[in-house]
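Chapter summary example.
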Amino acid sequence: MHVDTTTSALPDLRSARKFIVLAVATVAIIYSLILVGGIVRATGAGMGCPDWPTCFGRWVPPTSEAQLPANYQTVYADRGYANTTFNVRKTWTEYLNRLLGVFTGFAILLTFLFALPYRRHDRAVVNLAFASFILVGVQGWLGSRVVASNLHPGLITLHMLLAQVIVGLVIAAIIRACRNSIMSIDVSRMPSKVFPLIVFAMVLGLAQLLLGTQVREAIDLIAKNSDYVNRHLWIDNLPAFFAIHKYIALPILALNGYLVYQTAISVNSRLLRFLGALLMGFMLSTIVMGMSMDRLNLPMFAQPLHLFFSSLIFGTQLAIYLVVRGPYQEYRSRTEAAAS
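The structure predicted for these 340 residues follows.
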């Protein structure tokens, strides 16, 4: 992405490029963490480490049960974690998830530090990066509460939603840092109705994501009650809101397809065409993964991918909205000034 430094809205070219590259990499890392988190949940590895921040009392977890005290199950039962049995696969899956979480925190810290050159030119970039850094600390604390609560479903949902907020802040910082280049996009032909529809699509997408987490919680409960057997019966025992989550996907796809089409025919921008193609690709991938879960009795590979692609939808919608909002606001201001 070209960065225009001909005005005072940006720091020097080198600093701007460093920030944008690092921030884009941070977005990729956050989404990788969301994917790994989905794998942790799909494999039932969430309590692979029954304590936090250590794992079985160690900073590096054991590789076999023989490395643990003989009474470790009693110790954790006294702490409220009944039936704690060491499983090397689950333990190291959760441990690697935590390591990626720490790495993500450092990436967001670096993103904030690399945003500091903007403090004299565009304070909003620094504020957005700083907000993401503060919230990643909150996210770490919330992760500890998830473990302490023995994977309370409501806290897991809040943990996921906060991840969407954090990645949204970093995306907003990137768009803001590229403001000068983006402001040159001609949006004069874009219908005004597109903007409230984009906001509605984003709200609807988040609601669909939240509804999906409720479906996931219901699946977890059914799986636990059936001792994780008879997987082919889990779908049939899901509550009625599963049908809402399933059948509302096509209207949401149609709405986003209409918005992508309107943007493509009214704005000559390779960036927006690229973002539109990504959005439709993520939506179709989400639906395919959802259909495979429905038709193939919840295959383990489909669950984290379904969450991963659905998370990417909101970030892409937000990027499209932010890219067109600035130029459109400036266009409206010029039009109103000319009319007066």
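To summarize the output: DSSP finds eleven helices and no strands in the chain.
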